[in-house]
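Consider the subject:
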Amino acid sequence: MRCIGFIGAGNMACAMGGGLTASGADVTLMATDPDPSARDRFAAQTGGRSVGELDEVLAAANVIVLAVKPQMLPGVLDQLAGKVRAEQIVLSIAAGFTLGGLAGRLGSGCRLVRAMPNTPAMIREGMTVLVGGGAATADDLEVARQIFTVVGDAVVVADEALLDAVTAVSGSGPGFVFAFAEAWLRAAEAAGLAPDLAERLVKQTLFGAAALWRQSGEQVESLRAKVTSPGGTTLAGLEAMTANGFARATAAAIEAATRRSKELSAG
């Protein structure tokens, strides 16, 4: 039985731990956090063990998940330095910390995996991309991938440089979707719909369109074409979006978020 220890017992740790418990995976869970209420919530939601000291996680865990906020990670790494055992996997979900930066603190022989999940993991509909450090084996990456499949989809890439674009597309992506939904809601209300009806329509339409795309197996261009009749309302709306720079704004958002991710990773 594998023991997975979380350093940081916040939302993502609870989501991952809860997913692992619900999946029936042959694992034990534990977590430490400076906030006792966060530890208690982790234990209540996952059935895992709440521990007060980081060293207890180090002693027991086969997989150590760094699930603290990025500003807290340097202090955690200082506590871990020189203590991680050769057989342990260290899985980091902290944004802005490269494999090189982590290895510089923990040692080049540390079996590191860096992951970029997104917030829908909290309802087990997340998207996670993983990349391994030089000492990580193929088995290490598969262990990490399986951990994240309990909270959504997970894929391994070979090039860490891709994580900047990944951060922009799937990490920041939920924020872009919510911003689109906000604008859609305001426009629906301006068209005369009551706020509660507008929210119900927009929410279910977003969900239904995404589910149709995932389940149909069709390309998104094909699905868009099917709902775009010549001379119809969808075409009129799409033409207005194009004229107002929708595609350009979307591209600019991805470019800006990718650039910012690179800046954060560079320190």
